[in-house]
Amino acid sequence: MSESQSESSFKIEAKNIDVFYGEKQVLKDVNMPIEGNTVTALIGPSGCGKSTFLRLFNRMNDYIDVFHKKGEILIDGKDIYRKKTNVEELRKSVGMVFQKPNPFPKSIYDNIAYGLRIQGINKKSLLDEIVEKSIRQAALWDEVKDNLKKSALALSGGQQQRLCIARTLAVEPSVILMDEPASALDPISTAKIEELIQELKEQYTILIVTHNMQQAGRISDKTGFFYMGDLVEFDETQQIFTNPKNERTENYISGRFG
Amino acid sequence: MKSIKEKVIESILFACALITVLTTLGIIWVLLSESYSFFSEVSLGEFLTDKEWTPLFSQKHFGIMPLVTGTLLTTFIAICVALPMGLTIAVYLNEYAPKGIRKTVKPILEILAAVPTVVYGFFALVVVTPFLQSIIPGLSGFNALSPGIVMGIMIIPFISSLSEDALAAVPKTLREASYGMGATKLQTSFKVLIPAASSGIIASVILALARAIGETMIVAIAAGQQPRLTFDPTVPVETITTYIVQVSMGDVPHGSLEYKTIFAAGITLFALTFLLNNISFWINKRYQQKYE
Ligand SMILES: Nc1ncnc2c1ncn2[C@@H]1O[C@H](COP(=O)(O)OP(=O)(O)O)[C@@H](O)[C@H]1O
Ligand SMILES: [Mg+2]
């Protein structure tokens, strides 16, 4: 083998990850193997590096001048930071949903079709089909089916966030990254999103940052607790919430700090 | 004590504002009253429909349209140059250029707008026109094309700078959404950022248009001074501004009908720019709501 390629039986694997912003180290030797078709929750007090960690998987940190990292991020066994990686291709298979709903100032239809159009897919019938399928998958179809031409900005916050999820699903990624996707939403919208995540697990591997302990408990298979750049504990969600091994984890989930 | 000082400052500020308003009103008043007496001698119908503009000849015609088409033609050519170039530069500076380059290039570009226009005029006449003549046979020594292009270069910074500001003001979250879907920088720029910044970009274009419509020196030097109802860019034309200069500098007696033509021309120019301002105001209002 000419190319140095690490073996991994996991869908995703973070190996010995150190991240620096300039001089400041914000992630310290993080290792996290993630199996396919699971939901992994990333929790921890704010500023502990959850978003930074999440954004490693679609190379979204690349835009920050002072960012640099050590270690490997393997997806399907390949280091996504190797020179050969096509970042645009990577992002088609690793979708992202952001904290604040960020639909484009375009119609609902055009928002969903965006990812397809940039791939050169312009066939109307195909677009129609995928747009409908994705919006249905995001449990938004009944609410918007009659006004697909309406501006996405006219939707409520919860609807916008589901639209953003639908937009991500439309390009058929295999991994979905979510950075506190429900933090700006009301409880009903939040419940809808959580339900959605449960369904999506069948087809996707999901990493979700959340501030909400109950949420992490409800939706995830595994949970990683970060504290000041360390992955303090990473285990079955059940285990973390009922019987944490580390005292800091216990303090955090029982709400003693955070 | 302090309140007196504040009051003085306040009244000085008020006086400044008043002077501006009064000046504007004064200009409008002169334009209106002089054109009123012009239009009592020449009908508005003739002014708008006659195909010739020859107030200084013995066979007098008072059709403003040749001057309007001359103005629109040179302005149109200028925008055809400035919009693609300005927008390309804006996209480059915003999306591709490292911060250091953006910080130096922007002010350097803005120098383009600060070059005295008489320099541009001679540049058009002695450099651009001969060059164009070597490509386009039959291009006359004075024409709309050459000053149009040069004017376009002059107004590039209006578009590049303001559009860059508008692009930079697009929320970072939209950019991230686009990159996150696997879009390239180019796709992100043209499919997300430019549409999202459209109101600012349109405003920049309108500002540039207004500048081009009002530009005098470049067209006076290089476009020729022959009012002609045409959209042919290869022949001499005259713009409204050029005509005004020509008459004000000439020996037309004050108070004569010939003299009053410059006010009629002036009010036409005023109407054009006023229209543009309103369009830009309307666009801003309309798009701003959609965007937030
Ligand atoms: N662009 C950046 N430049 C420098 N430091 C940053 C940047 N983004 C985040 N940080 C720092 O990195 C640390 C981790 O941030 P982040 O990953 O956003 O944490 P979390 O998502 O857990 O709140 C914080 O201390 C934050 O101040
Ligand atoms: Mg965060």
Characterise this structure:
The complex is a heterodimer of chains A (258) and B (292). Chain A has helices at 50-54, 87-93, 108-117, 124-137, 141-144, 157-170, 187-200, 213-219, 237-242, 247-253; strands spanning 12-21, 24-34, 39-43, 67-75, 78-79, 94-97, 175-179, 205-209, 222-227, 230-236. By secondary structure, chain A is of the alpha/beta class. Chain A has a domain at 7-100 and 174-253: Rossmann fold (3-Layer(aba) Sandwich). In chain A, a hairpin with a 2-residue loop joins strand 9 and strand 10. In chain B, helix 7 (172-180) packs antiparallel against helix 8 (185-196). The mean pLDDT of chain B is 91. The interface between A and B is medium-sized, with 28 and 20 residues. The complex binds adenosine-5'-diphosphate (ADP) and magnesium ion. Adenosine-5'-diphosphate (ADP) binds at residues 21, 26, 44, 46-52, 64, 66 of chain A. Magnesium ion is lined by residues 50-51, 179, 209 of chain A.
Give the SSE layout:
The complex is a heterodimer of chains A (258) and B (292).
Chain A (H helix, E strand, L loop, with lengths): L11 E10 L2 E11 L4 E5 L6 H5 L12 E9 L2 E2 L7 H7 E4 L10 H10 L6 H14 L3 H4 L12 H14 L4 E5 L7 H14 L4 E5 L3 H7 L2 E6 L2 E7 H6 L4 H7 L5
Parallel strand pairs in A: 3-8, 3-9, 6-7, 7-8
Antiparallel strand pairs in A: 1-2, 1-4, 4-5, 9-10
Helix pairs in contact in A: 3-4, 3-6, 4-6, 6-7
Chain B lengths: L1 H38 L4 H6 L15 H32 L2 H14 L4 H19 L9 H24 L3 H9 L4 H12 L1 H17 L2 H6 L17 H10 L7 H35 L1
Helix pairs in contact in B: 1-12, 3-6, 3-9, 4-6, 5-6, 6-9, 7-8, 9-12, 11-12
The site of adenosine-5'-diphosphate (ADP) has 12 residues of chain A, from α1.
Shape of chain A: globular
Overall mean pLDDT score of chain B? 91
- Let me know the number of strands of chain A: 10
Q: Which whole number gives the mean pLDDT of chain A? A: 92
CATH architecture of the largest domain in chain B: Orthogonal Bundle
For the biggest β-sheet of chain A, the strand order reads: 6-7-8-3-9-10
Domains of chain B, number: 2
Helix/strand order of chain B: HHHHHHHHHHHH
Question: Span from first to last CA of chain A?
Answer: 47 Å
CATH class category name of the largest domain in chain B = Mainly Alpha
Largest interface, C-beta closer than 8 angstroms, per-chain residues: A-B, 28 and 20 residues
Instruction: Specify the overall morphology of chain B.
Output: globular
Q: Which percent bin holds the helix content of chain A?
A: 25-40%
CATH topology of the largest domain in chain B: MetI-like fold
- Which stretches of chain A are low in confidence, meaning pLDDT under 50 for 5 or more residues running? none
Rounded to an integer, what's the Rg of chain B over CA atoms? 23 Å
| Counted beta strands of chain B | 0
CATH-derived architecture of the domain at 7-100 and 174-253 in chain A = 3-Layer(aba) Sandwich
- Strand portion of chain B: under 5%
